[in-house]
Amino acid sequence: MIQKTTVDIKISIISIICIICILVFMKLTKQQIEHIAKLARLDLTKEELKKYGNQLSAILNYIDQLKEVEVTGVEPTAQVTGLENIFREDKVRDWSKEEIELALKNAPELEDRQLKVRRIID
User: Fold this and answer.
1) Whole-prediction pTM
2) Closest by alpha carbon to 54, among 40, 6, 46?
3) Residues 52, 14 contacting (CB under 8 angstroms)
């Protein structure tokens, strides 16, 4: 199993946020960055807010430059290698009691032996 650090998780989430920002925002204010961090459930310091805000703004500025590229006649593509996804069959597997207990033990919050998560939709 791959161990992810808090930094790895923050970077992954920031990457996703960048894509959302590109689609939604063009200029990021401090309030927008704080709102995005809240939606991603990131507890960022003032230094991190400034750092990531600058990074997001730089990315958005680059995207603005890409808007100037002439793409008439260019077909959209998701990848260019010709590779196709190969899906494996989805098989249901019963867990042992030890596996279930270990999974539940690592959960931040439980309710009736089920994982309880906070609401994420505003």
Assistant:
1) 0.39
2) 46
3) yes
